[in-house]
Amino acid sequence: MQQFLNTALTGLTLGMVYAAFALALVLIWRSTRIVNFAQAPMAMTTTFVALVVIDAGFSYWLGFVAALLSGLVLGAVLERVVVRPVEGKAEINAVILTLGLFIVLHGLAAVVFGNRYRSFPAPFGLEGLSVGGTTIALNGFGIFTIVSVLLVMALLVALFRFTDVGLRMRASAFNQEVARLLGVKVGSMLTLGWALASLVGSLAGLLIAGGSLVHPSYMDSVVVFGFVAAVLGGLDSPLGAVVGGLVLGLSLSFVSGYVGSQLVALAALVILMLVLTLRPGGLFAQAPERRV
């Protein structure tokens, strides 16, 4: 029973980490209709910014804020300078561009920060909590991760459902010409979408890095699992991203704990194939897929 509980709690924390990254993918998709494959190296870069601040002798929280702000700026700059020239053209152009950014940011991070593994601190304890004399696989940082992801999900739902800014972002993503005719500053909305998505991605990078080792490739595997979580829940749904992350995290945790860790990647692929086959729009798709 204790093994089952610990496996479930490990999957819960892991699922929230995947959900954090999936939320960044959902945000960029809802605001620009682009799947940003460069989200992981962008988050990795801002995590190293936090590490530089912390290594300079400042507090973890100052580094935390520095990473989020640098993510906000990085997203806005990349949209304005790199992505803007291909917006409005064939969708594949933007996809290829984000793949190119993936490679470029990796290379730049290796040059600036180095390729060696570095320890990243955590703001809360990493020891399991003691309940009734039994230590469970949930620690202070895990609770911080869960609360952070739920808070971000709630803020994103509020942004897109209850604010004019969210409505303008969605209008700009779906039809730029109509949005312009309605008085929406499309360029500003697209920049804001990239900036906010990069900020959420920065949070995901910090949550993944907490209490572990970081290097320029430390988030590469998260791209796959985060993308599966986003597709599982539905790329249009922040709630779906969290549910997808939880389902994926729990599933992979049980596979690793009871079957074998070597089958985790295969299990993720099977889950992705099942979702794309049975419900292509995701579990929380707002409308059924239409076929022409």
UniProtKB/TrEMBL annotation:
Lineage: superkingdom: Bacteria
Keyword check for Transferase: no
Membrane topology: Multi-pass membrane protein
Keyword Membrane: yes
Principal location: membrane
Location relative to the cell: Cell membrane
Segments passing through the bilayer: 6-27, 34-54, 60-82, 94-116, 136-160, 181-209, 265-285
UniProt xrefs under CDD domains: TM_PBP1_LivH_like
Family as reported in the entry's similarity comment: Belongs to the binding-protein-dependent transport system permease family. LivHM subfamily.
Name of the featured protein: Branched-chain amino acid ABC transporter permease
